[in-house]
Amino acid sequence: MAKTAKTSKKKVVKVDPIGRAYVSASFNNIIISLTNNAGQVISWASAGKMGFRGSKKNTPYAAQMAATECSKVAYDMGLRKVKVFVKGPGSGRESAIRTIHSSGIEVMEIMDVTPLPHNGCRPPKRRRV
Fold this sequence. Notes:
InterPro entries: Ribosomal_uS11, Ribosomal_uS11_bac-type, Ribosomal_uS11_CS, Ribosomal_uS11_sf. The chain is of the alpha/beta class. It has helices at residues 60-77, 93-102; strands at 18-25, 30-36, 41-46, 81-87, 106-112. α2 (93-102) links the parallel β4 and β5 (106-112). α1 (60-77) runs parallel beside α2.
């Protein structure tokens, strides 16, 4: 008895002209997600998805390439204005925002939502030699 493959329909996302852009820039990679106001992802891209490997993934050029790919798909679907939420200490933050703006999607607002520790975790014990 052969198993049949389960077919699943792709979820259709309602694209409004105004949405959000999430740029997560770590030291290892950069991930860009364009969503509608409900938070449903319209398109996404990362430096690793674009084919960059190793230390090349956290460069501003890799962020630029990922933002171009992501915003081109979202612009064709009807996204025109975004609020940008930037998270992380990576090097491609500014270049990703500039590329999203230059691709035709207007950047209305930029917010830094990087998490900051209030007191942090407990430091290690004093070293005894």
